[in-house]
Amino acid sequence: MPRLPNALILKGYKISPLLPLILRGARTLDSAINELRWLKEHVSATAKPSLSPQSKRKCLLQLCIRRSRAEPLQYILGSQPFGDLDIKCRPGILIPRPETEAYTTHLANLLLSGNYDTLLRTTGKLAKKKHRLPKVPSPRILDVCSGSGCISLLLHSLLATRFPDTAIFGLDISHTAIALSNQNLELNVKAGKLLPSASQGRDGGYPQVQFGRCNVLSKYPIGFGHLDIIISNPPYISKAKFASETTRSVRNYEPKLALVPFQNQPFTRGGLEWEPELKFYDRLLKLHQTHSSKILLMEIGDEEQARRVVEMAALANQHTGSNKIELWRDYPDASPEKGEPTMMNIQGSFKELPYPNVEGKTKIEREQIHRTWNGMKPENPGIKFDEFDVPIRGAGKIRSVVLFRENNFRKTEGSKLMKEMLAMRLEDVTLCGAAKKKWQKWDVGMPGRENRKFSTKLKVEKRKRRKKKLRPASF
Amino acid sequence: MFGAPYICRRCINASLRPARRRLLRSASTTSHGSFSPALLSRARNLASEHDRLSKETAESFDAKISRRIGELKSVSEALKEWETAQDSLKELNSLLKDPTTDSELRELAAEDISSTVTQLETLSQRLATSLTPKHPFQDLPCLVEIRPGVGGGEAALFAADLLKMYQAYCSRKGMRSSLLKYETADGDSDGNLPLAEAILEIETPGSYGELRSEAGVHRVQRVPATESKGRTHTSAVGVLVLPSLPKSGSEGQEMGEADFNDPESDYYVNPGDVRTDVMRARGAGGQHVNTTDSAIRLTHIPTNTVVSMQDSRSQHQNRERAWQLLRSKLAQAKREAREEEVVKLRRGVIGIAKMGRGDKVRTYNWGQQRVTDHRSGMSVHNLDDVMEGGHDLDKIIDSVKSWLGDREIEAMLADDEAAAGNSKS
């Protein structure tokens, strides 16, 4: 981090003696002046009117000192605007980013344009039962790694007027995040920025926006019925980049859990080795395939990662029916600037890992090995695909990978693949936490309760294991 | 003999000299007791049109025609009243002149004449105002943009004072106002912050009509806080008053022309012509950084109009406000261009003082505690009250408004005369 020039500090001091403090956190004079004004507004809005101006000034000074330690302004003020909404922020939960806002809004605009209505309406179940298809689709959306709940809430605020029967589920690993997202839901409904159907449901139905705790890496989430859209801003920063590329305020104050996947080891999938931080994309692609959702939107870190995720998606494409892959930049609705390519070329050649040695293993173990090696392609042995181009939309840095399903694979691939999927699901899947069949009954309101149960369970298991270990020794 | 043994010569001179006449014209004095034939004929034309239209609507109803009738109604009513008053005046005059009338009747007529004359005065005033063309943006809320001009830091300080004055004025008048944009300049921080640019949004409908006379260069003469030797400086601050256009098309429906989805209207801005610039995060962006930059800059490429907004923490809100401002600016520019053409045409007929926003319109003099408006010629000697947005500011604004009305009538007359001249030749 370059040192602040003295001239800049002096210039700031001339405007206000508090600015040098804020400059340490904000780094540029323009943003420091803005931040000082917002801090002042915050103090005058939140301080008790009975406070003397002197103590108000002291309050402001305290906040400025906090900012000088590079604490994010959003944590100091306790909120961040996200689209129309005001999202509450608290240490321990990732602050919503403007890029996230941009692609969420763009996705909502795509859906509102009506071009995707037919895609959203073709649900396998409904088509089978020959129901009359509803005129207006009712998209069911899953937001994986919802954090503060910003994506779910913004989507509801944008979509609910056109699609009154929309349903949005948010999943996160953290109890505090779930509690905060529920608070955000309540606050925004109260402020009139969300329709009341978001928290109360329509005509006595389920609430349209719900949050639940789930560790999607270890437990496979089920129980949503079909899904139309999966959207996710998963942790995607690698350990090395966390140390080198994140700014001080992110590194020191934002939760590492939301930034860096806790997976340490590279994993194999489809006979290839993948970096550990891609684990989430693997899981998201699988969710996309098992729930036969129509659109999958995943935020990614940089161009290199985008390439890897597109390769992963292309591999998955080989047997899940065709998905149209797109890359979106930071501002997908803007026109590309000079020097920004609009296509990314993906080479289809990979170096396959050698098949693991399975001699002397039992049948079950062999299957296990095969599955970890071959996970995403149960049938096809070939993993090479033709070189192809992926369109890149918008301006800025490459920010997300988007998959649009082009045909319903349930129809094309038939029931065989479906059965296989189901088998995988049953084996792989257990519901997280205090698992109940109904999403509705998830224990969301009381953070910590599940944890306690879980820990006692763990203790019992540990005790059992210890006994087992002890027995042979004593015999 | 004298109460005081000595009186200084200056005092004696002052008391002996007749009161010095100010060379300024005092608040609008032009009266409309008698009308120019052109204006009168115009009023008659409008009245006859009103009669014709109302006959038409008696048979079939049309929203457009009935709206036009509503506009003309005030003119025709005022004209009727004025004409009856004029007739009675004529009758009374003839009575007075007639030698056959007896003395009693003559006395009564003389009494009546004075009252009728005063009545005629007010009636003609009313007729004049009804004839004054209604400004098309008059019923809109407005944006007041304040920028320091010549004078450096002192101008910036005075700009902040002016902003306060307008805020106080609005709150006293019960008009809802909010700061859309507030940018401080570099400078010392004690007291009020010097201003680089401020935009005050006044949401009350009709505030554009109230405040449009405020547009122009405001000059200040005082010893600035930044001055160490006690010299008086003169600096200038530009005030721009823009009509604030309704946010959505549905709100603007009742105004007829204010539909900005219609490419023909003044309010239309083609989104393809506007380039949006957003503060881009440095480095990798996304989860790697957390910025508070929410600045938005819009550039209208054909006219090279730039609007930037960074006041709110929400980028979304900044974008909306920037669009609103851009729309207002472009609409104003289009209208000004059209007016400029009309003025050019007029100049061929009659020399009319230029009243563009380049000229100074008002002076605030701290030394004499005086505020003078150069257009109406009104002077007020209660500077503090004006700066607090008090009743004296009202007086000034009203005088300017009536001056503007006179000007518009004059211009209209000139137009009519020109039209008449054209038709003759």
Produce a short descriptive summary.
The complex is a heterodimer of chains A (475) and B (425). Chain A is globular.
Layout of helices and strands, plus pairs?
The complex is a heterodimer of chains A (475) and B (425).
Chain A lengths: L5 H10 L3 H8 L2 H18 L6 H16 L4 H5 L1 E4 L2 E4 L9 H15 L4 H5 L2 H6 L10 E5 L5 H10 L7 E6 L2 H16 L6 H4 L8 E5 L15 E4 L6 H6 L3 H6 L13 E3 L2 E3 L4 H12 L4 E5 L3 H15 L5 E9 L11 E4 L16 H12 L13 E6 L1 E11 L3 H20 L20 H26 L1
Parallel strand pairs in A: 3-4, 3-6, 4-5, 6-9, 10-12
Antiparallel strand pairs in A: 1-2, 7-8, 9-13, 10-13, 11-12
Chain B lengths: L8 H8 L20 H23 L3 H35 L5 H29 L10 E7 L3 H22 L3 E8 L10 E8 L4 H5 L4 E7 L10 E11 L30 E5 L17 E5 L4 E5 L5 H33 L12 E6 L4 E4 L5 E2 L2 H5 L3 H34 L1
Parallel strand pairs in B: 4-9
Antiparallel strand pairs in B: 1-3, 1-5, 2-3, 4-5, 6-7, 7-8, 9-10, 10-11
Mean pLDDT of chain B: 77
What is the CATH architecture term of the largest domain in chain A? Answer: 3-Layer(aba) Sandwich
Q: Strands across the major sheet of chain B, in which order?
A: 2-3-1-5-4-9-10-11
Task: State the fourth-level CATH superfamily of the largest domain in chain A.
Answer: Vaccinia Virus protein VP39
Uncertain segments of chain A are: 124-131, 376-382, 409-454
Q: Given this structure, which CATH class of the largest domain in chain B is correct?
A: Alpha Beta
Number of E-type strands of chain A: 13
Question: How many structural domains does the protein architecture of chain A include?
Answer: 3
Determine the number of helices of chain B (DSSP H or I, runs of at least 4 residues). 9
Task: Write the CATH architecture name of the largest domain in chain B.
Answer: 2-Layer Sandwich
What's the helical proportion of residues of chain B? 40-55%
Order of helices and strands of chain B: HHHHEHEEHEEEEEHEEEHH
What gap, in angstroms, lies between the N and C termini of chain A?
63 Å
CATH fold category name of the largest domain in chain A: Rossmann fold
Q: Report the top-level CATH class of the largest domain in chain A.
A: Alpha Beta
Number of structural units classed as domains of chain B: 2
Mean pLDDT of chain A: 80
Oligomer: heterodimer
Largest sheet of chain A: 9 strands, mixed
Region (Disordered) (chain A): 446-475
Protein name (chain A): Methyltransferase small domain-containing protein
Pfam family, one (chain A): MTS
Biased composition (Basic residues) (chain A): 454-475
